[in-house]
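User: Could you walk me through two proteins back to back? I'd like the raw sequence and the structure tokens for each, with a short line separating them so I can tell where one ends and the next begins.

Assistant: Of course. Protein one, sequence then structure:
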Amino acid sequence: MIELPPNVQRPTPEEIRGIAREHHMELSDAEVEDFAAVIEETMPAYERLDELPDPRPGVRYTDRDPGYRPPAAENPLNAFVTKCRVEGADDGPLAGVEVGLKDNVSLAGIEMTLGSKLFEGYVPTTDATIATRLLDAGATITGKLNMEDMAFSGSGELSATGPVLNPHSRDHIAGGSSSGSAAAVVNGDVDVSIGGDQGGSIRIPASWCGAVGHKPTHSLVPYTGIAGLGRSFDHAGPICTSVEDCARVLDAIAGKDPLDPRQGEVPTEDCAAALGGAPGEVSVGVLAEGFGHEASEAGVDDAVRDALSAFESAAAEVTELSVPMHLDGQAIWTAVANEATAATVESEGIGHYGKGYYDTGFADYFGKARRAHADDYLATLKLTVILGQYLADEYRGHYYAKGQNLARELAGRYDEALADVDVLAMPTTPQTAHERREDLSRLEVIERALNMLPNTSPFDVTGHPAVSVPCGTSDGLPVGLMLVGERFDDATVLRAAEAFERSVDPETA
């Protein structure tokens, strides 16, 4: 009888010694020999795992069209990666609503690219929890929407399939990283969409395209089945043309998911039912440090202040307040995001050491792809992986740890300010949409990918809910007002945004 080789390859003595050296250990020959013997005895456990089935969440609504890549005539803004059709329940709160998903949200049987060459051809075998919840609510999923390559840019010009164009001006780009999610909604290609937000990626394109984009409280919406960058700042949420639609979608997707390690206790509220308050019932604290950033355009700051004055004229209580530490928010986010993203990439995109569901198929695909094609990473991701790994190695994780500690301190400062008002207010982004350009240097690409984050990124690491709502224009391009509230009080944030939306016309503010 021929003896077959084991399923799980054993490390060679040279590999054992090399791994030890990576961890600052110099092994003797005797140690290498002993460890190899113990490893040999351990490996049958891993071979047994190969024999066991891999538990996966079940897929409902299996009658689905895998879709196609739409031609340019069908996709004038480049907002779609795939057009498909997956019909949900016959009735429900979202019956008749067509939804687009950012192309990092798993939908079984339909290609998911993450906006990257590395994932072309990857087809998930499970649905993200929020995809299932949308279908349960009666929605129909009609497309996977374009995004910045691996989600690491805010500009909207760095998808592997090219820039996503702004629906208000095709000479400008949509913003990112949820580029297609905002462009498709404003263009009327879908009724509502789902975006992701690690540094502002729901709110930035919403602001630049003139949509409403809500980043929920961290962990309110389960992230299971969505490709992320860091568990402590991964968010998913709705982009719509109205606050009411955002509230309806949020109600459908929010809540506890035992498969998501990001979640603890998740209190929920009927956000749609909470809408309808009068402007006079809303108190707004205008954050002084949210204006006048290095990248700020005077027209944007002026449009936001004019809109808040109009809201005050409609009876809202508007006061100015200060949170000086807000100016350190992007630096704190940078320290957390760089090392977390590098670690996520090193873990084949799924993270380690928490309870919950791990998508082994995604990890296998990512692991093979990055080893073969890491040269195709976006410049911003290359930079982040290099810098994050350097800082982790050279400074032993000090800056990541301190960043997380400071994020908790910053959250407390915002909470102190929110004790006196319902919401904080500031420009979503310091500028309007970038002009479309094709002659950019690498340094310009990186700068344009990250220069819109000073107001959005702090709330990713503190976890506060934040919504961007259209409030005016500057040189004919949309300007977004961002409202921020207490954690797990998304209902108040959306109620304030809807009162603003009803009482202030962004065309005349």
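----
Protein two, same layout:
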Amino acid sequence: MDNELIDISTSLRLQIGYGIGHVLNDVCASLWFTYLIVFFHLVLEFSATQAGNLMLIGQISDALSTPFIGYHSDHTDNLVSAKYGKRKLWHLFGTACILASFPFIFSQCVGCSMTHKWAQMFYFSSFIVIFQIGWAAVQISHLSLIPELADDDHTRAHLTAVRYGFTVFSNLFVYIITWIVLRVTGECDKQQVGPGDAWKFRHIVYIVLSVGTVASILFHLSVTEKRTNRNQDQLIDYDNNTPVQTHCEFLKKPVLYQVAGVYMSTRLVVNVSQVLIPLYLHRTLGLAARSLAVIPLALYLGSLTAAGVQRLIPRSFTRKLNYLLGSACALSGFVWIYIESDDNYKIYYIYLVAVLIGFGGAIMLVTSLALTADLVGARTEASAFVYGLMSFTDKLACGIAIAIIQMYADGADSSYYRDVLSWVCGGSVIVGLTLTLLLPKYARDMVTVNDQRSTINTEDPTAASPSDIL
């Protein structure tokens, strides 16, 4: 069993096999966050409020299903899961839900395209709920494999970076396909997105789902889930408790909610900016359809650069320094959006802004995920539960934020999305950075938790070595 630890840290095949396991989720998430409101508001001509409500329905469905799936993923114990792996079994279930529902979301209402928009919302909502349940199952099961496959905090961070690297490649693929389809089928350099583009989005969905399906199949063939008992460093050290006791111990620790706040703030930066940037380009800057693919592409080129930099960062570069670097880059981009809008900015500088936001957001996200893996440590039986709680906060916060933003968008002027991007996303950067800097600096075996007491050694602030988690 110990050889499995060596394999995952040195085998390129296993790293790639793990990384591609989230590609289907990634391509769907890219379309969901970047183009859902664009599709429903600009193509199907739903109001901004209705489009925002559809996204809210999806985010609430995801938020509610995530902790449920996380809990049951930790407790799944049957003949099939024992042979195939409980994480991979939930991953397979989620994949089936996604493939059965997502194509209907980015298509016109079948047999009801002429009915009232509020009636059509019930039709689309049913597929959105199924999709989000499946998406949550894939996300939680895939994240929960990190602590089981990785032995130490540096290896976990490396796996997280590999995972995020494939996320970036998936987004790049989506935007390149979108640009190709828009360019081949129309004058995307002159015309904005409109109702006549519905069939184009349908073809984009079919292409990216095909690639995501192949990636999921390769993941299931490449990665073997194994149960191991290992002693390793973690934020919280536990006695041998039952899974329920372990979950309760996590819920009693303030650091859990602090890390959840970091993750939620980071996701607000990444996801809300991904939703609003296409609307900002279309409405505030008045750019053509081409920009809705090319500028998000530039944003994810920045993310790709960050994923490469993350792999080269030495152990002595702490989580807090990582997050500070990402925050500085992202905040610079949002400030630039607020102060610039001239022609040179629209033609040239908007790409640099996109790269800054992409680079900064990627560093922040990888760091927040690594903090979550550190929080789980060796308690892999509770990993899905913890990731479920983290994801619950981010899904609910993003859904509510976007719905509120869209609620006031219909009657707002053209500068609305510029202001919202700057203040909401910029404010989230500051909140996430503050919570990260306030995280306690845990050293090895610093925290001991059992059924009766919790003790923290704070007498020696230098006890933590540079390679410790924060």
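The domain at 2-456 is CATH 1.20.1250.20 (Growth Hormone; Chain: A;).

Let me know if you want the two compared in more detail.
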